[in-house]
Design a protein that fits this description.
The structure is a homodimer of 176-residue chains. Chain A has a domain at 56-175. Chain A is built from nine helices and no strands. The first copy, chain A, has helices spanning 6-22, 29-36, 40-46, 50-74, 79-86, 93-106, 113-131, 134-153, 160-175. The structure holds a DNA duplex (18 and 18 nucleotides).
Chain lengths: 176, 176
DNA sequence: GTCTATATCAGGATAGAC
DNA sequence: GTCTATCCTGATATAGAC
């Protein structure tokens, strides 16, 4: 297959950026086109409708989930550290895509939730491999969800070291 | 002062219900009026604008925060149990109002975040009184935020007993 | 492939009857 | 106090030129 046109990627990136920084309401076709540096007509050549644009972003996130799970497992500090430290990170591609799709799922596109559920499952699986106890793993992912909740509301994330210390005590309690 | 007209309360309740069950996008003036059983004109008699309707709900939540903090402290099972078990509860008035205002804050009304911050602070204060360690208290509130995150996305909440057990081990670890 | 219109529709708000 | 009717604005989508 031919390489996807650069304009497609630019449009998806602009859509993501608007969703993360200004919310779903502001991510109109006009705004996305402006932000991507194309006209509205040009945008609608690549994505035939708003729904198609949403689908494009959801599929992009789905592609990124496997890559993120692999990055968790390969992380020098381990999956738990990776998950908790990136949960408030709006700088990396995966986290931006996750937050963007979460905006869509809470807004006019509930079908976007499938990809979010898949991400949650991938995180839990990777954390279980590190901590052993599934209950502790679920709690770690739930803490991560809490950080996402605050981030999506614009509040400050909690201190990372404090959380890591608590997770360490939990692991010692349940494994020894 | 005279008692507030029943229509006002009906409208606020309808607004809350639409926000919690169908998201911010669906809570239009038309939909709220229909749901409350009044006409759009009737709604706009009580609340002169959409902004005024939003302010009405935010003020209602603010009123409920102090009452909820008192209920936490008075709870037979304690503040932690109260907080974690009610975080996915969309049946009680306070939780419904919180979720509704969170929808607004994530949507077109970021100013609604002030009331959410106040709730977070009230929860943390009450939990600190029970568990002592502020770090553990912040983690408990963060778990509660995670449950809210899932609830606001329409996902199933995690098992309560499992979380309570983990919090108990944390408390034993940090206090003894 | 990308642009400039323009049609269509929905939500918010106003005016005025009852 | 509550209703109906109407206006204004902005967002999606289409048509057709370049």
């Amino acid at each position: 297959m031919p390489p996807p046109p650069a304009a497609r990627a630019k449009v998806l990136e602009a859509f993501t950026d608007l969703l993360v920084t200004s919310g779903e309401r502001s991510a109109t076709l006009d705004a996305v086109a402006d932000h991507a540096g194309v006209s509205k007509g040009g945008l609608l050549y690549h994505f035939g409708s708003k729904d198609a644009l949403v689908d494009g972003l959801v599929e992009h996130l789905t592609d990124l989930i496997a890559a993120d799970a692999a990055a968790m497992r390969a992380d020098r500090e381990g999956p738990v550290h990776y998950l908790l430290r990136t949960s408030s990170d709006v700088g990396h591609e995966f986290d931006r895509a996750y937050l963007a799709v979460a905006e869509l799922a809470r807004g006019a596109y509930p079908r976007a939730r499938g990809a979010l559920d898949a991400a949650e499952q991938a995180w839990t699986d990777a954390v279980v491999e590190e901590v052993g106890d599934p209950a502790v793993a679920r709690a770690v992912v739930l803490l991560s969800d809490g950080i996402y909740h605050r981030t999506s509301l614009g509040a400050a994330p909690p201190p990372l070291e404090e959380l890591l210390t608590l997770v360490d005590s939990l692991r010692r309690t349940t494994t020894g």
